[in-house]
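Quick one: structure tokens for this chain, please?
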Amino acid sequence: MSLISPSLAQRIEQARQAQLRAQKVAAASGWRPSDSDRQDRYARWHVEDAAEQDSENWLLSYLDLITLLLALLVVMLAVTMHGGAPGKSEKPVELVGTLASTGLPKYDGEYSEFETVQIPASWTEPPASATATAAASPAP
């Protein structure tokens, strides 16, 4: 080979070296750090996830639920034992079907005094002017 023209292997090596230099210049001139720099930058703040020591954490919430149910059972038992719950009454239970034959029971609550007010008999008849206008209007 002559000294003036390089061999094919030398030209390939020169092209590869030029490409590497161009990549280094582009990486150095850019405002973004490379991927390896970014990984190193945030590595000091990274905290490894600790392995879960107790895999039975669900048991605590399950035991809390069982404890609440047991406390509710104790409260319900205490209420029934001390007469807080309604007991049997001597009055028979009226079913819906029996209301038709016996009628509704007499109301003696808060508004029972309004039942004593007498409605005048003149109010049972509609006024004469209303009946005259109803008779005068044609039926459709």
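Residues 42 and 48 are 13 Å apart (CA to CA).
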